[in-house]
Amino acid sequence: MRDAASFDEFYRSTSRRMLRYGYAVAGDHTEAQDLVQEAFARAWRQWGKLAAHPAPEAWLRLVVARLATDRWRRLTGWRVALSRTGPPGPVPPPSEDGVLLAAALRQLPAAQRQALALHYLFDMSVEDIAREAGVPTGTVKSWLSRGRTRLAALLPDLADEKLEANDVA
Amino acid sequence: MSRELSDLYRSLADDADGRHLAVPEVLRRRADRRARVRLAGTALAAAVLVGGVVTGTQLALSSERGPVAPPGGTPSPSPSVTEAVPTPSTAPTSVPPTGTPASSAGSAPPRTPTSIPDRAFFTPPAETTVMPPFFTERPEVLPELCGARLDDGVAQRRTRALTYHLQPRPEGYVPDGSYRHTITIHRAGRADDWMADLRQAVRDCPEQEVGSGTVSRQRLLSSGDHGDESVLFELRWPTRDDAGNAAAGETVRLVRAIRVGDVVTVLWEQGWESTSSDRSHVDDYSRRAQRAVERWLEG
Fold this sequence. Notes:
The complex is a heterodimer. Chain A is mostly helical. Chain A has helices spanning 4-26, 29-45, 47-50, 56-68, 76-83, 96-105, 110-122, 126-133, 137-154. Chain A has 2 domains: 1-91, Rna Polymerase Sigma Factor, Chain: A (Orthogonal Bundle); 94-169, Orthogonal Bundle (Arc Repressor Mutant, subunit A), CATH 1.10.10.10. Chain A has 9 helices and no strands. In chain A, helix 7 packs across helix 9 (137-154). Chain B is of the alpha+beta class. Chain B has 2 domains: 1-40, no CATH class; 50-298, no CATH class. Chain B has helices at 2-17, 24-40, 42-46, 191-203, 279-298, and strands at residues 129-136, 154-164, 177-186, 207-211, 214-221, 229-240, 246-260, 263-269. In chain B, strands 1-2-3-8-7-6-5-4 form an 8-stranded antiparallel β-sheet. The chains are: A mainly alpha, B alpha+beta. The interface between A and B is large, with 78 and 63 residues.
């Protein structure tokens, strides 16, 4: 039996972080909204089991990441469904820095985007990211290093920094 | 570096905070309704292929936007035979000739395309269209192919997204699949190079990791008679469920690029939840896409 109240509490307490993560890995606000809501819908469908999961937020991040790297599947339905619930609320203009970073992130491989987002948005260590991604720590270090090197090339203000593979360990 | 990048991520997070999601009650209702529709769809109930990860490749527009020459050649007639092959397995037997052909004798010279109008895109059958196609600014034209970059010579590009049912369904049924459909205009004589580069990119990328422990295999397939030349390839990976656990079967995606003169139209079938690409549907949409480009270029 699924407990709606506990799901709603989980949703309210994690949706903001998840939307940030979705934006960081998808690079697009609309797509981030779609995929995060799809991920929560999947969580609700399995809430009977997921409510007892030791780390439901990590499970959700995994689903968001998978949806983000498999674009255009199963997402547009949300756009249609939510458009029927009324017009969206006012949206503040995006910041220049946020737009620049999102544009640069779109040019990174998915694994690098995800690793960087987990590190910078969730303050996760290399070991934690490796555990969540199910890969060796060396792989995560490589993703972070390559991702930041690429970002440095794409974002001139960051270009002069010396990048080290293990400086986030 | 870390501090500065942290600042940028903070700005990105602030931007995301300005966006809103549905309230949880609406989300639950929507999820439950979709689950009921899903159960009602026998075709989907039989399909157990779920998930899989293929990263869209970055195919940025070339920063160099020179004048675009008219596409050469008279478009080939559309093939009339459709093979219903759900899972393609035929290896390519030959490579189409390269070289952007000159206009054929007796044909009116095609006009020079300087932009890509809506009519360059085909109109999908209304009875199997889930929602109206919409154009997107996202840059991905092709799936990831081991990091290959295929943006040389692209002068113009437009992409739209399509969702479809394989057969007419009542409103509310989950789609059977989706496409990214892109048309690119290449600088004179470069479209055939791009096609050759695409073939080589697929050959050079027989396997790639597309997620944690998920390996996608790529291979060229026999594309058939489309346009001046065409490329068809598949991506195939072991199916995983939402949580990333191994599930039965494989997920297959098909991508076809068709060149007509200096224009290339690309159909990237991306499935929908539990589906793999249906070869006969990809062939059908390929012919429609080719005809729309030919009609556009013939003015």
